[in-house]
Amino acid sequence: MASDDAPIALRMAERICAYSRRDLTPGALGRACAAIADTIGVALAGLPEDCTQVLLRTPGVAVAPGRALIFGTARRTAPLDAALVNGTASHALDYDDFSSDMGGHQSVPLVAPLFALAEERGASGERLVLAYVIGIEAMIRLARAVNFVHYDKGWHPTATLGVFGAAAACAHLLGLDARRTATALALAASMASGLKANFGTMTKPFHVGHCGRNGLLAALMAEQGFEARLGALEHPQGFLDVFNGPGLHDAARIFAGWGDPWEIEAPGIALKQFPCCGSTHPAIAMMLRLAREERLAAGDVARIEILVHPRRLPHTDNPWPRTPLEAKFSIQYAVVRALLSGTPRLAHFEGEAALEPEVRRLLALTTAAPHPDMPADGPNHWGAEVVVTLRDGRRLSRRVAQLVGRGGDDPMSREELWAKFRDCAERGALPAANVAPLFDRLLALAEAADVRDVTRLLERPAPPRTDARVPAPPLARPERDGSRPEAIPRH
Question: What pTM does this model have?
């Protein structure tokens, strides 16, 4: 093992190369497969989004020949292009999993490039899952060294740190030795980019596609013998000092307890059960619990009070949303929708769902405010309480101190994962016969001898063309009737 004064990239690389399948705990394996399945689902749902469709129409994108599938289509291309497009689609709806320690989304930088590379090289599912876990480890370890200065300065950690995770994961899948893996990480340091100034635009999901492509490119270049300065992270003009500033990072935190336990098993990693801002999720969960346990009916409600940690409000206190995007960032709408419809689904954040008369009536009865018992400087930043006053004067409430999405001690059940996956796959117009088998195969991904046996279920047959000179139209969004999903099939 390299000494403590060896380049950071080389020390990281030695750890990346040291792990094999036997080092994966059952917990890490299960969480990895669930997160990968979830990411594939949200990528399918993101395929019809404008950012993905515009990218696919851009000259020069996804035209190179190759074996890598653009998820949810019949189009195959080179791995770098597939990583770019599928990565962008996977973050198009901001419905992907996230990490409180990273300050961003940990799976989307990894899944698209790993699948593209695995298809091109014929890799097994077991190798892909291990590479994914190692990519998560490298990415979040680096995040611990730079956050939250890095986040507060305006960098988008999903992209600026995700490129290192993608490089690490792809290098491991390629079987690179420590020096070439370190080179890939050093190359990634020069490819890191992504500004929070572009949040709220198509550029935010593009950050993800771009960083995944760059991480894969770094690993492929290193495989071919490309060179980079191995000290590119700690150099005075390297990643840590340039992106954070001298003295505003702690490289020792990258290496403390690496893989023990795996970061994928950390309580700060969570899936998104609901297709809206993560800051609304604790309050949604409390309304769902209250409605279920007290059998609430909307007609019985006289007032709804939403009390949350003050950090959850600046971007979600939107009492009268009118557009789908405003609805995603309205804690009032999200809680009202949970009362009216149960678990919020994609259709509830599309079209004119936020303008329904019963929604507007309940919004007029709803307030949101900082919780008096949840101080801004307290240890838990993801608490919420929902208080409902009934017409007969009774006050009912439910409270949670900390709920960072669904993970840790409160993981999504298989049924909940399936309900979300099906909702996403239907939006992406995947053939109905493929959806349940694909879900099952993804949850058992480590058993696949060849990843291509799984990705064939992600392929949507090309429509017949009556005139070869007329290109097929872009994928249209499927019609949604807003109905609740039917009963969950047994698996």
Answer: 0.89
